[in-house]
Amino acid sequence: MSQQVPEEQPPAEPPAPSSSEPPAEPPPGAHRAAQRRRPIVRQGPDWGGLLAATVFYWLSFTPSLLPRPWWLQVLAAAVTATIGYALGALIARVVRIWFTPSERLRHAAWWALGVAAPVAVVVTTAWSVTWQGDSRRAVGMDPRVTWWLWALVPPIAVLLCALLVVIGRSLRLATHAAARGLGRILPPRLAAACAVVVVTVLVIGLGQGFLQRGVLSVLESSARLANDSTSPGIVQPTLPTLSGSPSSLESWGSLGAKGRDFVGQARTRAQLTAFSGQPAMDPVRVYVGLRAAPTLAERARLAVAELQRTGAFKRKVLAVISTTGSGWVNQNLANPLEYMYDGDSALVAIQYSYLPSFVSVLTEDEAAHAGRALFDAVYAEWSSLPAATRPKLLLAGESLGSYATERAFDGSLDELTARAGGALLLGPTADNPLWQTVTNGRDSGSPMWLPIYQQGQKVRWGQVAADFGRPANPWPGPRVLYLQNGGDPITWWTPHLIVHRPGWLVGPRAPDVTGGMQWYPFVTFWQVTCDMLGADSVPVGHGHRFGTLPVAGWAAVAQPPGWTAAETARLEALLGQA
């Protein structure tokens, strides 16, 4: 009997999934991996980023130290909103690790934001006119703003913010590309960390290289051209008491534009006599330009040689003035001493840079070296003279010049008052070492914007002349006086504003700082940064403008015998007409 072989059956097909069974879930991370494959730069906006950007846009309009013109508000709004977008996107990214909203919730959230954000932008821009009015009143300006210019702020700020976001996403794309390349030879997490470091180093390196070789080159070229110019009405002096004259050790051309302004505006004997009614002398003004000698030490020695040539060490008063970055000296800081002493005075300054102060601060510390070099050279000669015959030695500086003056003494009040007969410092910066010491060590109960230090025995502050009498205690001297406006962003700007509430916003405010100003992390830092650009665009007595207040300042620090308050007022009126 033959055995029957069973017929081969085709393989059974897998059973169709039951309609009651849920579809298979994709492997963990598959959705995020798909998202990562999308080009970063072309991804849609992040919901959390847009929400935070809208909030930060609103905060950028809140009052700060000074009123802002429309173009400055564009800059403040765009950069602040970009910071908000970055923070919001980061927070949203972290939140999505633990919580994934449903499609319905995401849809509703986008609709709500799409309606609320434009409304918030329009309402904030319109309402900010009230805030700006308050800020403008605080500094004595017309509270009204030009509506059609203010209406330009939202569209331009949004475009600029979008551009900044694209730049940020491009850097993210570069980081991801670097991580993929490094991932071929390194573990994934280490590759990601190294990619961040590489891109950061490249960005900083390229930025610094561009700044030094590109922007700084353009700025310095422009500054050199300006330094070669001569202001209208300024002519080479003929008096031997002035640098740049035919008798001078320094040529008229080597003084530079700021040096020519300084010596070319010296008070004449006739002007001084007309003011006092007494016979006057030709005042001494010595200035050494950047081109006069290659090093600071050589320029300082040349300045001393000029002082000796002009007989400056035989005058009643000798003031060492530290200049701003470009070599500028405020005439309202220089002129009063010549009037007060009937020309029996000498002023000396040297140039250490062509560049404006804000660029000099960012790129070099030449101001500190210049302040020390000049003072040490002058002091060495001055201290070798008989005490009974040498002049009263004074110090002066404005803004970066005040910083240079303080650095000549390593920020020591005792050393300054031991070696000089007094100092008048205008608009100090937050980096001034002595200013930091005495402000932070102020007597309890005195505000940061108008402090009292050790009962005013050596150093005092003032925004108006009446402040010099605070407190009503003796002020024997040598005296150090800061002219400091409560709303001066040059004085209050510091990186600490990013995360720390400043002391000048704690307790009573300065009279020119509106009560509507509040501190917000990141936001206030950028607002005050923008305020610095407009510090000289407000009325005298506010921002970084001091007008003729140095007249009363010098009268408080180095008043000559017989000088009266009436003469101070008369000199202020005279200089205020210039």
From TrEMBL:
TM regions (residue ranges): 47-66, 72-95, 107-127, 147-169, 190-211
InterPro entries: Alpha/beta-hydrolase_catalytic, Alpha/beta-hydrolase_N_dom
Pro residues bias locations: 8-17
Domain Alpha/beta-hydrolase catalytic: 284-571
Molecular functions per Gene Ontology: hydrolase activity
Keywords from the UniProt entry: Hydrolase, Membrane, Transmembrane, Transmembrane helix
Ranges where the Alpha/beta-hydrolase N-terminal domain occurs: 61-265
Segments of this protein annotated with the region Disordered: 1-37
Pfam families, per database record: Abhydrolase_9, Abhydrolase_9_N
Protein name: Alpha/beta hydrolase
Taxonomic lineage from the root: Bacteria, Bacillati, Actinomycetota, Actinomycetes, Kitasatosporales
